[in-house]
Structures are given as structure tokens and as C-alpha cells.
Amino acid sequence: MSSHVLSPNLEADIWARLVRAHDGALSSDLAKFLLSIDFAEEDEERMQELADRSSAGTLTTQERAEMDGYLHIANFLAVLQSNARVALKSRNS
């Protein structure tokens, strides 16, 4: 297996394909749980700080890796929550 790091968008696309393979498989309880997941306030603040430093061009290599980690997790969470919203909407239709 390659140790190549995928871009966040490519990773999100892969996760989206994996989740789509199980459309309709999410229970209402699981969908609601997924929609309740959110970053803690201190993580939100840290992401903003990293974004500001990135815009200013002052991120260290370690900070860039940290920011990439946040982006990967945020993209993954977005895919899961999108699927959860679709599952709930299809049950309510």
C-alpha cells in the first residue's frame, strides 16, 4: 500500500463513494447521531488560528500537517453528515 497522502478533496470523494455504496442503510438513530457530531469550541478556535496563519503565509510544517488533519476530518464528517441528511429526508418523504 502506498504511503502517498491524498488531498482532502480526493479523500472526501473516496469516502463519499464508500458511503453511497450503503445508501439507505443508515438508521434514523445513527443518522441523528452523525448529525450531532461537531468540533469542540477549542478545535474551532484552533482551526481559525491555523487558517489565519495560513492566509498570512506563516504556518510551520507542523502546523500545516495539523491543518491538513483538521481538513481531512472535516471533509470526512461532511460526507457522513450529508449521507445522514439524505437518509433522514428519505424516511420523512
Give a description of the structure.
The structure is a single chain. The chain has one domain. Helix 3 packs across helix 4. It is elongated and about 50 Å long. By secondary structure, the protein is mostly helical. The chain is built from 4 helices and no strands. 8% of the residues are buried.
- Rg from C-alpha positions? 16 Å
* Structural class estimated from helices and strands: mainly alpha
Contiguous runs where pLDDT drops below 50 for at least 5 residues: none
Strand content: under 5%
Count of discrete alpha- or pi-helical segments spanning 4 or more residues:
4
What sequence of helices (H) and strands (E) makes up the elements? Answer: HHHH
Number of discrete domains: 1
What kind of oligomer do you see? single chain
Choose one word for the global shape. Answer: elongated
Tell me about the largest β-sheet: none
Helicity, in percent? over 70%
Overall number of strands: 0
Q: How confident overall, as mean pLDDT?
A: 84
N-to-C CA distance = 43 Å
Task: Provide the fold topology.
Elements (H helix, E strand, L loop, with lengths): L7 H13 L7 H9 L4 H16 L4 H32 L1
Can you describe this structure in just a few lines?
The chain has 93 residues and is mainly alpha-helical. It has helices spanning 8-20, 28-36, 41-56, 61-92.
